[in-house]
Amino acid sequence: MQNLFSxxxxxxxxxxxxxxxxxxxxxxxxxKDGIANDWHYLHYVSRAVGGAGFIIVxxxxxxxxxxxxxxxxxxxxxxxxxALAKIVEAVHSHGAKIGIQIAHAGRKAEDAAEPVAPSAxxxxxxxxxxxxxxxxEVKGMVxxxxxxxxxxxxxxxxxxxxxxxxxxxxxxxxxxxTNKRDDEYGQDLTKFGREVIEAAKAEMPADMPLIMRISAKxxxxxxxxxxxxxxxSKAYKDAxxxxxxxxxxxxxQIAAWGRPGTHAAYQVPLARQIKETLQVPVMAVGxxxxxxxxxxxxxxxxxxxxxxxRGMLRNPYWTLEAAKLLRKENIVPKQYEAGF
Length: 340
Ligand SMILES: Cc1cc2nc3c(=O)[nH]c(=O)nc-3n(C[C@H](O)[C@H](O)[C@H](O)COP(=O)(O)O)c2cc1C
Known about the structure:
Elements: E1 8-10, E2 13-15, E3 19-21, H1 38-49, E4 54-61, E5 73-74, H2 81-93, E6 97-103, E7 116-117, E8 131-132, H3 135-155, E9 159-164, H4 169-174, H5 184-187, H6 191-203, E10 210-215, H7 226-239, E11 243-247, H8 268-278, E12 282-284, H9 291-299, E13 305-307, H10 310-314, H11 318-325
Parallel strand pairs: 3-4, 3-13, 4-5, 4-6, 6-9, 7-8, 9-10, 10-11, 11-12, 12-13
Antiparallel strand pairs: 1-2
Helix pairs in contact: 1-2, 2-3, 3-6, 7-8
Residues 22-25, 58-59, 101, 163, 165-166, 213, 247, 285-289, 308-311 line the site of flavin mononucleotide (FMN).
């Protein structure tokens, strides 16, 4: 029987438990140069000390105008590699594995003078109208993803996550609401995402897993639902995605039509459906910070890995406390034993 503290292995990624810290933007690059700083180092390393098996570094963008804000991390330059390599090394020395989320915000790039997107459709009435990428520029964008992944591999990451969720560029390409192109990238809505996955895989060692984060459901009127996301996920799986990270929404305002309450485990049914239908490993996320619930998601085989985001912002030692509550073997570092 699997539980939250069972080991997990996919390809060359061997995790000591099933607890994952999901990518969470820190908007803390004060110098606006995309380079990780002391905040990022402490933020990620403290969750490794706190017992998480796997940590995914926040959305890290492939070009300056791919950032949500100018305070995001980037991997468009070799100068951005050493600070990330330092984080990777420290996280490893505390027994955790670490991946990074590679992304482009597309029309949701708030600080870009002129954001780019598949089509010139703004996010909402308060957003800039993006410029539609030319076909050549879309191909160039695939190359920017490739180079960012190459640098992430150089930095020593154990896995790559591609951000295909939350209304950012890849999501904008595979959603019929935001992709109104009539070229090859509009005739086949998954072509851009598939090419990004293929380019990433070409830069990654064969035994390194690629994780694809998707929004399995849109919450705006006329948006896609689980049936459509199963279809495009199948295309992404065939292109080389090894694990799916199942989130939802982000294409419209939070108060949009049909959005569910964010009650505990609200996205787990979506993760389970993708897992069962496509026979792929999945990571669940969303209000799973009750350890008994997180443990049940693994025990009931609804997901292979569980992510705890806001719960780990509150408490970097979430995993240590969960192990104690669930009466798993003692994983507390000896320096902190008196606290437990
Ligand atoms: C401060 C913050 C920043 C986030 N940044 C990202 C991000 O960079 N990439 C991403 O895919 N999701 C991001 N998310 C979403 C989280 O990864 C996660 O899916 C969400 O918080 C739900 O999980 P939770 O209920 O455990 O917090 C962010 C969430 C928060 C709270």
